[in-house]
Amino acid sequence: MSSTETQQTAGRAKRRAYAIAASVASFLVIVVTTYLGLLAVTFFIGRVVPIDPVLAIVGDRAPAHVMDRVREEMGLNLPYYQQFFIYVKGVLSGDFGTSVLTTNPVMTDIRRVFPATMELATVGTIIGVAFGIPLGVLAAVRRGSLADQVVRVIGLVGYSVPIFWLGLLGLLVFYARLGWTAGPGRIDVVFEYTFTPITGFYLLDAILNRDWAAFRDIFAHIILPAALLGYFSLAYISRMTRSFMLNELHQEYIVAARAKGLSERRIIWGHALRNAAVPLITVIALSYAGLLEGSVLTESVFAWPGLGLYITNSLQNADMNAVLGGTIVIGSVFIAINLLSDVLYRMLDPRTRAR
To answer: Distance of CA 201 to CAs 120, 121, 123, 187, 299, Å?
Structure first.
């Protein structure tokens, strides 16, 4: 290899290294900026809501000097910029303060309740993906047919009907009238003192413990709220799958595949859906994140002991440390899932790597 070719190769490697470094730096700037924005929003929400955290701690009958001392201990007598600095420092160290309702550190409470929310959202997403993608493919392949119209109506109802109303209706029909599912809660009281949680995901824990009676009871409790969340997820996933598939089915490679005599099944599932799967990753990730942050009403209706119910109870008892801590955790998970989906999209789509 000549010296000129060596210099050109070195130059290309140097430019590529610069491009990777710029991409990583841009990624980090986006992460930091987004997270600081989340912290700023939660901080100012905590300051503008008509709830005095001092009153929530000492009560409205406490003497004035006690309230002033507690306010000073909490740093609420400082200027806002100093309060924000203290707030960010505490959040970055995992300190969200102490819950007024439970008297535990907020992070301890979140570690206890968050697995229940993740399990519910995960089962709901699995249901949404398992039914949403095939329905979306069916609607795209039979565009304009009765099947397409039915799928679109199913999606429209999933978007339009309030999920808490569906939850109440589901409890009335499938629990109270038909008895097909268990009632509110996560596990029957019979198993509360015999069942041993390991990971916090009760279905998985029941399998690890080989406690099949508890597994059936846990499944009977989770299937109805997870199905409702899955229906909400299905509405979004089926709609986007239909859109992506319609775009792929009009591409030239589909025409070429049909000209080669490939079966319609192979063209649809082996070629069109395979290419549509790349943007679908982002859709599924956003759906999962949406279920994590949008399960508050579902958990309230089904008395599901997750983060949504924890935030609701904390808000009703003016426990702002718990409310803001739970909000930050959900926001952080949402940001992380979005960034992960973006990374996976870039890894799986060669066109984005080429840019």
So the answer is: 9, 11, 11, 12, 16
Contacts of 289 (CB under 8 A, 6+ apart): 333, 334, 337, 338
Residue 105 pairs in a beta bridge with 98
Non-local CB neighbours of 134 within 8 Å, separated by 6+ positions? none
Distance CA 172, CA 158 (A): 19
Helix (H, G, I), strand (E, B) or coil at 105: strand
- Could you tell me the two tokens for 49? 């809501």
Instruction: Check residue 294 and give left, alpha or beta (phi > 0: left; psi -120 to 50: alpha).
Output: alpha
The reported pLDDT for the residue numbered 119 is 92
d(CA 233, CA 11): 48
Domain locations in the chain? Answer: 3-92, 106-354
CATH architecture for segment(s) 106-354:
Orthogonal Bundle (1.10)
Provide the whole-model pTM: 0.81
CB 191 within 8 A of CB 180: no
CA distance 175 to 184: 9
Contact 226, 186 (CB under 8 A): no
Of 96, 116, 100, nearest in space to 324 by CA: 96
List, for residues 224-280, the tens digit of each pLDDT value: 999 999 998 898 899 999 988 888 888 888 888 888 877 888 888 888 888 888 888
152 φ, ψ (degrees, to nearest 5): -70, -35
Backbone angles phi, psi at 182, to 5 degrees: -80, 170
Rounded to 10°, the helix 106-141/320-348 angle is 40
Comparing C-alpha atoms, which of 101, 65, 166 is closest to residue 313? 101
Over its C-alpha atoms, the chain yields an Rg (Å, rounded) of 26
Q: What's residue 67's pLDDT?
A: 73
Q: Is the pLDDT of residue 355 over 60?
A: no
Condensed to tens digits (0 to 9), the pLDDT of residues 135-178 reads 999 998 888 888 888 988 888 888 788 888 888 888 888 888 88
Mean pLDDT of 203-215: 90
Is 308 within 8 Å of 296 (Cβ atoms)?
yes
